[in-house]
Amino acid sequence: MRFYGLAVLLPSLIISSASFANDSQLLLNRVHEYGIKKCDSFISQNTKLQGNWNFFINKHTGGMDGPATEVTITNIWGSKGDTVKTESTYIQTAKNCYLRETWTLTNPGSCGDNIDGNYWYVSTEMPNKDYTTYKNSGGVELHAKEISVGNFKACVQEGSRRASAKHG
Description:
alpha+beta
């Protein structure tokens, strides 16, 4: 009976462990399918699949200044009321790997309640527009917009960054 139980259970355990493959490796395998094969460490350092994630990959045709492969990973993670969306565009050229990443966070409540004044300061007030621009000590910009629907308020925060590295 034990042998029969082990014979039935073992294949399902092997299938289960395969389905829980390392998220980073899963992402790299998908990026390889789209043609970026020389930027593994750069991608692993810059795009993390967080808990409760979905990701989508799009390949862009053409190139910049010669042959290049460009792929955009849209990653949506978190839970209702606390969701983050990032778009990471990786470009592999003959010598380097490049990244342009944008993010959008939507939090319930006012922007005053959601943007930490100890970390961010107002860099550009735009009273005639819907956005206020903030910066942090590292020079990262954050554009925030407060929206209201009835009694419900939400703060939409958007930002971006660029990075590059040699192949590897």
